[in-house]
Amino acid sequence: ITQHNVFLADRAKYLHFDDVAFNGLYNEDERISTIGSRVVGVFANQEVDGESYHITFHRCDFEKCNIGFDCDDDIDGIVFDKCNFHYLYHAIVVGENISSGTGPIVKVTNCLFDEIYDTAIKTLNGASNFVSAFNSFREFVATGANGSGNPTAPIINFADDGNYSIGDTFARDSDDALTY
Length: 180
Description:
By secondary structure, the chain is mainly beta.
């Protein structure tokens, strides 16, 4: 597997993706069971001398990568609407290497998450301003590909305050919810 990201958004302003598939090189029947070489569907970045802001994904597919979307910087206005995330280790990771500030401002709405080996949405290191709303998380999310009855991680993991899950639906039953 190549160690290159599918798409790098660096110093990007007003990017709009409609009906785009960000596909890595893993096979559909291959379980992505580690963070591995960290192949990312979209990595959003900004350099010291250039800002990034207003990046929108509408009806896009993120699949067959270690991570669907990864962003560390303070980027305003990242929006995912009606997207599909599947065959990934993590779907969205923000804030792993924040240099300053509160991380990116991200809104994820009306998306479908399925076949996510570990945590679907993960914020780290002081990242706030993340909103997940009206998304559907299927039974093969955060179960190590074992399905219902076998949770291995939280579906959404907000490390800090100022992040929200509003009206999301989870296929995980109440017994599994007690574990994670």
